[in-house]
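Crash report, auto-generated. Payload:
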Amino acid sequence: MLIIGERINVITKTQRQAMTDRDKGPIQEMALNQVKCGAGMLDINIGPAEDNGEQLMDWIVKTVQEVVQVPLCLDTTNPAAMEAGLKAHDNSWGRAMINSASGEEERLNMMMPLAGQYGSLIIGLTLNKTGIPALAEDRCAIAAEIMGKAAECGVPMEDIYLDPLIMPVPFSQEKSLESIRAIRMFKELNDPPMKTVVGLSNISNGAPKTLRPLLNRVYTALLMYEGLDSAIIDPLEREMIEVIKTTDILMGKTLYAHSYLDM
Amino acid sequence: MAFVVPKDTYNGKVFEVEIGTGDKAVKIGGENTLPFLTFEGAVPNMPVIAHEVQDVAPEDWPETVQAAYKGVSGDPVTWAKHCQDNLGAQAIALRLYSTHPDRQDTSPEAAAKTVSDVLAAISVPLIILGSNHAEKDAQVLRAACEAAKGRNCLIGKAQEANYKTIVAAAMAAGHKLIAMSDLDVNLAKQLNILITQMGYEKEKIVTDPMSSALGYGIEYTYSVMERIRSAALMQNDGTMAPPMLNDIGMYVWKVKETMASESDLPDWGALEERAIGWESTTAVGLIMAGSNLLIMRHPKAIETAKKVIAELA
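Recovered output after restart:
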């Protein structure tokens, strides 16, 4: 499974400060650490980036790709910054991913044409202006709208990563199974099956700190069983990476060797 | 709505490994698709065939293949030069067979001398092989690595029982390495991981999945090779991305079909033709499975295999 490292994020203090100061050090260090721990792609979350968003995205994409040879998942709601990131992205190690479009008309109309224009991958969140549907079936209906828009923009179905959206188990326990069901149903929307992604850690939001890693890990394994293709997670959590690698082995996605955890 | 052609492309790519120095150096591997599917992906290098030469006269080879090297096989330098100059060998594989404790038990120093002498006489790349005795190979190959320093040879075979010494020696002298496991895809991966953990770059490894002759288990070799290649290409597994080597001469030229005389088995047809055909057919079968480098014996079998490669290229 593709691991998308989540640690370069405007929400964390050190990273935000580094972004503001245009200080390469902490960002490059975090990029290197995540790749070393198993990330195959890095999420670059600069937030709404209302001031100088384009310049910031251009700078951070180049800064990160100076030290790691992986593609990036560009995470901003600012379409101009998104485009600047796509322009700056070095595709030698894979295409960039847009994080994200959704069923909301405005966002879909802004982001999907960029994916078509730059040939990038794109995450489609299955929510719309009324929120996240309770039922997997209704998330599929939004997925179909996203896929329709993609076809209109010349984006191949295999470049879309559908996100069923994960709800915190402490607040809505019944939803955790619904998101798993959504992954299964998304896969059936196309042949070859649609690709899927989740922002994993939301499952344990609101749970005690000691429980969160366990909830995250077990939920990952369940989602992977349904065919989850990628997850935005913290690759520095060693046990999480071990669960992913082991699930990949048990699912036959990686060839077994006694030292599989070391690779 | 524009129609988008669904494309079957692979994430992974076989590593490209260069052996030898100067303009006679050869590159193997580098493809990002299955064997010869040039319409689907890039296949920068076609399979290379190395001529096998031994450090001792090949008295235990069957007559058909011994005869092909009459007059030159008494001395490894003459033999290697003959392969290079008269047979157009792309590479030479020198097997230090006499070092085996059950043979002459030649010392590592004497073996290293042979390596130096052969290297001084040829400009094509050299593959240096031990006698397949794990303990002795560790000593012999260490000495051979040192003697061949600077010539970017391919050294082998490193196996689970002896890889540490051989990896260290290959690393110190800047050679490429053959990693061999016993017809088992999981063990092949494990060995590559262990070698990499010593600090040896996986991009310098050549995998020997262990070969077998037509009619004597070639299907096992074939399916292990298919599985290795699919792990590299479809699962993008870097530990399985080294190019593959098939050392087939030693397997082919000990089976009944390459030795039984016409008088014993008249139904089997002419011995020479049958024996040569056995080697070339084994080679072609394994080329189809993704072989990047073959070690072969009979010049005519090599010629046939090369023709097939040229037609498929």
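Post-recovery validation: The mean pLDDT of chain A is 96.
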